[in-house]
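Morning!

As promised:
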Amino acid sequence: MTAILTPAPPLPADEVLLGGEWKPGRGEVLTPTDPATGRALGTIHAASVEQVDEAVRRGIAAAHDAGWRGLLPHERARYLTRVAALIDRDADSLAALQTANTGKTLAETRALVSSAAGTFRYVAAALETLEEAVTPSRGAYLTMTAHEPIGVVGAITPWNSPIASEAQKLAPALAAGNAVILKPAEWTPLIALALGRLVEEAGLPPGLLSVLPGRGSVIGESIVRHPLVGKVSFTGGTATGRAIGRIAADKIMPVTLELGGKSPTIVFADADIEHALAGVMFGIFSSSGQSCIAGSRLFVQRPVYDGFVAQLVARTRRLRVGPGTDPTTQVAPLVSTAHRDRVARYVDLARSEGARVLCGGTAPDGPEFADGAYYLPTVLAGLDNQARTCQEEIFGPVVVVLPFDTEDDLVAGANDTAYGLACGIWSQDYKRIWRVAHAIDAGTVWVNTYKQFSASTPFSGAKESGLGTEKGREGIRSYTRQKSIYLGLNDTPLPWANP
Ligand code: NAD
């Protein structure tokens, strides 16, 4: 590994965006850290609970202002297009900031930044072409469905794909005419603050966006509980999503929950093995496995099991582990040493459950890794699908391999999990692909490919992986309230009162 020391990119100022104004945060001190070196990047003051209330009140006023509410879709779209152009302009510095704060490779953070710009651009285009429906009438009236803004939306994001997650919520929520209170994860607040500066620079009417870093249990929860917040869009762990869902139930408030996963990737004996190996490795080890859709349970059909697993292990051993700033790195550090230690505890648990560790299973050796949150890509075998390691989300570079015999066994095993986020199928038999793709409980099924995304394709989770849809036109609609309008066309009064 070549140690590449790049200067830390400039940090955003230690201020939070409070409904159109940059102000010192009145909450606790957060210390974003570079996971490759363990060095603090600086300090940022979180927002306080009082600042959440102020942001929501400013948001309500801004969302109801005719200057925003009265804008036609193509006029609102212009702001989003400008944000996209500003993200493109600052792509290099945003990617460097994101790599410094998350440890991810620059190749990945550049892709995330580009995806964020693409999301703003797609949502702007979709907004200009969204149509309301005129429904068939059953009398002397015209009926139409209108979609109206909700008011203030809380957007709560995790640390694993900042800027892309933020854009996925901000762009459609603003497009739909709302104000947004954005709360990034406590480990990775920097990119959301930088994005806030760009949205402001795009000339968005003041008050529509607040960016309030802080702890989930303090700032996140106070956003969810605030009586004037009309919807929460959350991406994160299932336990947190469940807690948010309970509060939402009390408020009768809509929520979008994008939660965890334990996604099966399935290799049938007739698969193109080279394609399958490349896809399986990308599916679990890219982003160091810190991906909700990571293919963390690998099912391989018995006739090719031994050969496939031997190749997988040999190639996994060759993956290059190193800092995200080294262009040759494939597996970068995890987001923090605390998270790395959590992953390591899961591998210890797997050992105690009887797993064979075929490769990895430890942090890499060497002084260059000593201060970073590194963990070797790990392949585990010999477990039953009921083992905790096969059922719980590890969120690291750890895959469990399981053999299967028949299609029925496979479907039963793959679905035997609380989650239902994604699935990968590697086969050349299109009839079987069709059957299995429908039989697996998952919001997204990739066939002979994995972890590909399009801003225009809806994304959602089944079972405990989530509720509601992001992306696509449905993603914009999810930030609206539906209203039916009946326009009377009678030439005479309604008959009931005038018999
Ligand atoms: P997390 O649930 O701990 O935190 C996510 C966000 O919620 C953070 O901003 C956090 O501060 C906030 N939060 C925590 N407690 C809260 C509370 N009580 N009230 C309100 N907000 C609260 O998740 P994480 O560790 O940041 O992210 C990893 C998880 O996210 C994994 O489970 C992963 O699968 C999931 N994820 C899902 C998707 C998806 O689209 N389905 C995408 C990315 C990540």
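The CA atoms of residues 17 and 211 lie 5 Å apart.

Hope this helps with the figure draft.
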